[in-house]
Amino acid sequence: MAKERVLVVEDDEDILELLKYNLTREGYRFTGVTSGEAALKAAAADLPDLILLDLMLPELDGLEVCRRLKLNPATAPIPLIMVTAKGEEADIVAGLELGADDYITKPFSPRVLLARVRSVLRRRRQAPSPKDAPLTMGGLTLHPGRHEVLVEGQPLDLTATEFRLLHLLVQKPGWVFTRGQIIRLVHGDDYPASDRSVDVQVVSLRKKLGPYGKFLETVRGVGYRWKE
Q1: pLDDT, position 12
Q2: Which carries the bigger pLDDT value, residue 58 or residue 208?
Q3: Weakest-pLDDT range from 55-59, 144-148, 162-166, 180-184
Q4: H helix intervals, 46-177
Q5: Which of 65, 11, 56 is nearest to 35 (CA)?
Q6: Is the Cβ–Cβ distance between 43 and 51 less than 8 Å?
Q7: Is 128 exposed, middle or buried (0-12, 13-18, 19+ CB in 10 A)?
Q8: Fold observed for domain 5-125
Q9: Which residues contact 115 (CB under 8 A, 6 or more apart)?
């Protein structure tokens, strides 16, 4: 059976060829473009299963491409991984807040990239169980079955990773999760993430939660918990 199709947006021809070689060798169907405008057209014309998006693109940069993709109802559900040389926390948080599911900084290992691709696509295939009961914490309600978070009745725009992170913590209020536990329980055992990636996701999630962000507590030297 044919594997999922991956749209790669990368203006460096050498990196594009490297990604094409590794993705097609794993059985993925590959489409490559070198500009933001071409990415928007390709994504809308033939909806891919995943987008690998470089941030530093000519004319229309990756963050703007991500923003437009997430504003389009047809392309908004497509999972997106940022592939970028811009490793500053502000750039990464900006991409995650726009709706990116993950990020990889250059230079990258092809094995790590493929592991991230597999992980994101696996999560996309795993539909949440509608039997899961909603969790309510004051004015914040999390619906696992609907994959929805409401704050004072208004829907919160979270990425899939942010939703799973929040769900993990609110299921056990007061329980401290280490960064290693969060990586394993949110992403899976084979996910090659760092402690810093967890910190970046927490920063983004706190900002989106607004006044409820104060309940996502840092336990210095240990990890994170949802305040009881």
Answers
A1: 92
A2: 208
A3: 144-148
A4: 62-71, 89-98, 110-125, 160-171
A5: 11
A6: yes
A7: middle
A8: Rossmann fold (3.40.50)
A9: 190, 191, 192
> What does the pLDDT look like over 87-140, one tens digit per residue?
667 777 888 888 888 888 888 899 999 998 998 888 777 644 444 678 888 889
Look up residue 69 and give its two tokens: 């993709």
Domain ranges of the chain: 5-125, 135-226
Radius of gyration for the chain, computed over Cα atoms and rounded to the nearest angstrom: 18
The DSSP string of 137-155 is ETTEEEETTTTEEEETTEE
DSSP letter at 34 equals S
Cα–Cα nearest to 37, from 3, 64, 15, 17: 64
Under CATH, to which class is 135-226 assigned? mainly alpha
Strand-pair partners of 32: 8
* Residues paired with 177 in a beta bridge: 224
Report the pLDDT averaged over residues 79-85: 88
Phi and psi based region of residue 210 (left: phi greater than 0; alpha: psi -120 to 50; beta: remaining): left
Inter-residue contact 186 to 161 (CB < 8 Å): yes
Token pair for 155: 């829907």
Q: Same fold for the domain at 5-125 and the one at 135-226?
A: no
Evaluate whether 52 touches 7 at the Cβ level (below 8 Å): yes
Considering the chain, what percentage of its residues have pLDDT values greater than 90?
42
- Strand order from edge to edge, sheet including 102-105: 29-33, 5-9, 50-54, 80-84, 102-105
Euclidean distance between CA atoms 183 and 100, whole angstroms: 17
Predicted TM-score of the model (pTM):
0.61
* Strand-pair category, 177-178 with 216-219: unpaired
